[in-house]
Q: What sequence folds into this?
């Protein structure tokens, strides 16, 4: 057994934790009836030639429980920000008032709740894909180690470790999705 060849499971675990963290952030953006500044976090706008989070082109406020406002700093960006919000899939109709974009949050009806659960499922699928990509990276490390002289027994052991880690994180994603969907469907 060679001690030199080691697969970095801690790095894979850290990166899978990052995928879970990103999923939790995306889930926080899905509203469940109340306005929240975090609901705008995943929205990206084309600002000055690069994609920028919408909360970096203006000030986000929640003046009342069913209203979010975004005070855009650069007047020339208002149209792009409004378009990004419309195309985000949040189902919010922005209203312009100069450089302030008002986002009234409608009551959630049954149909809208179902749409939001589908959006949550899409976010979860992106997280699963990210975890699987990290699994592939780990398997690639094993292939490189094989070329460096890793035994078949060690390869099998590491492959099983990486697969177990992947299964554990896919399970966490599924559990988080189930919890979020229950929260959304709650009246």
A:
């Amino acid at each position: 057994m060679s001690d030199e060849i080691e697969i970095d499971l801690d790095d894979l675990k850290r990166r899978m934790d990052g995928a879970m963290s990103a999923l939790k952030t995306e889930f926080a953006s899905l509203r469940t009836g109340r306005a929240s500044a975090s609901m705008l976090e995943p929205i990206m706008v084309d600002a000055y030639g690069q994609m920028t989070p919408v909360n970096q082109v203006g000030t986000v406020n929640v003046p009342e429980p069913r209203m979010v406002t975004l005070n855009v700093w650069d007047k020339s960006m208002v149209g792009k920000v409004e378009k990004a919000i419309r195309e985000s899939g949040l189902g919010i109709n922005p209203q312009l008032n100069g450089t302030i974009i008002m986002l009234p949050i409608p009551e959630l009806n049954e149909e809208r709740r179902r749409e939001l659960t589908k959006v949550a499922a899409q976010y979860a699928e992106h997280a699963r894909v990210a975890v699987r990509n990290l699994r592939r990276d780990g398997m690639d490390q094993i292939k490189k180690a094989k070329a460096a002289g890793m035994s078949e027994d060690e390869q099998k052991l590491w492959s099983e470790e990486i697969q177990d880690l992947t299964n554990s994180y896919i399970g966490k994603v599924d559990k988080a999705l189930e919890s979020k969907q229950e929260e959304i469907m709650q009246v």
In short: The chain has a mean pLDDT of 86. The CA atoms of residues 35 and 64 lie 8 Å apart. The domain at 9-26+109-185 is CATH 1.10.132.20 (Topoisomerase I; Chain A, domain 4). The chain has two domains: 9-26+109-185, 34-104.
